[in-house]
């Protein structure tokens, strides 16, 4: 059970503590932030409302701890990460319970997220030892006009203090995807978890605490974004920001200054379906891509662009599958569970009502109870409808009928988002040409968009992000190149 047994020290009364300087602490504010269960719509947990002064202290301690951590051998850093990974997997049940109650993630998927996170941490430890253990050696006479009088040695060194801000939908996995690369690279880290998902994140951080990482190296600061959000992202002690979320990231990027940024900010992932596609395969992937975790994924299918000649058959197959989706509480492992907040449900409903007003075809009756929205397929959607462009982050999927591949590519590229997309066709040559034309960070051929496996590069174009994620890319972006040049008094060439 959350906050009990091994995790008893992270809670005081009914309020979970925050983590700094290797200790679980109560905020001097005396205030807490309520976390509402999306299913019951009642307060489930409470976390500390940290102050700006507590942020300052965490940053100060993180800076000092990082100096010592950067001198820790790579093998030792990896050893501690492996311990944390093992603890995550061992204690997956209470962490998964938090995910079920905080973000209404289906129980089976919640466990999968925690196990996947442990695997990510272990893989990162191994990958970090490999890529950080290598450097470069350059000689000067490879550039015109130079003799061999200079030897250049390059290596990767840490940036300093990393600020990590994961989103609600994967508060454990997308936290460790920032924490593990930061630590193996020799950085310290301050984690600001999302409000919904904060308690799961606190349990995850306790696993790192139990693994034996040095005091002050990791902090987890909870609180209201309105009170400490800007203060954190604009803090002079931050040397890098890794953020996953929505429009807030654009605001952060404008305020961050000369700080490296790694950002994934959502998408309107298009699914282009050609006339020769395997319709059964497409329908199965639309269901998986569009409705898993109630569509609350950055890489969910957000719009289907189907060739007119196969659209009727495709819509009928998808409709038949939508009917079979189970709807209800996450504890019952239902396919469709409540969306994370009432405001999210209201936003989704606004998109649906706009589509209804403008003449979209409802393949199912629109139904909502509280935060629970039944899966809905909208056919004959037109570009003048909001749902054609805006990201619902819910179980509502529009179908736009197209008369040419070019029309589909144009719609995809007209979006201000560019995270992922997919194309279904039996013609691999055509698929490659379409992939090259789509302005997205990733294109999946004959499969729904997806983040992962976690060592694959993951990036967005346009308003979907800055930089690239994936284990190797994250390690590299959380380091900088250090060069040492040996100057010789005379040219040096191989003897003999």
Features:
seven-stranded mixed β-sheet; globular; alpha/beta; Aldehyde Dehydrogenase, Chain A, domain 1; EC 1.2.1.9; Ald_DH/histidinol_DH; six-stranded mixed β-sheet; Aldehyde Dehydrogenase, Chain A, domain 2; Ald_DH_C; 496 residues; 28 strands
Describe the structure.
There is one protein chain. The chain is of the alpha/beta class. The chain folds into 2 domains: 5-265, Aldehyde Dehydrogenase, Chain A, domain 1 (3-Layer(aba) Sandwich), CATH 3.40.605; 270-445, Aldehyde Dehydrogenase, Chain A, domain 2, CATH 3.40.309.10. The protein is 38% helix and 22% strand. It has a 7-stranded mixed beta sheet with strand order 16-19-20-15-14-22-23, with helices on both faces. A 6-stranded mixed beta sheet has the order 11-10-9-12-13-26. Helix 3 (92-103) runs antiparallel to helix 6 (198-211). The protein is globular.
Can you summarize this structure?
The chain is of the alpha/beta class and 496 residues long.
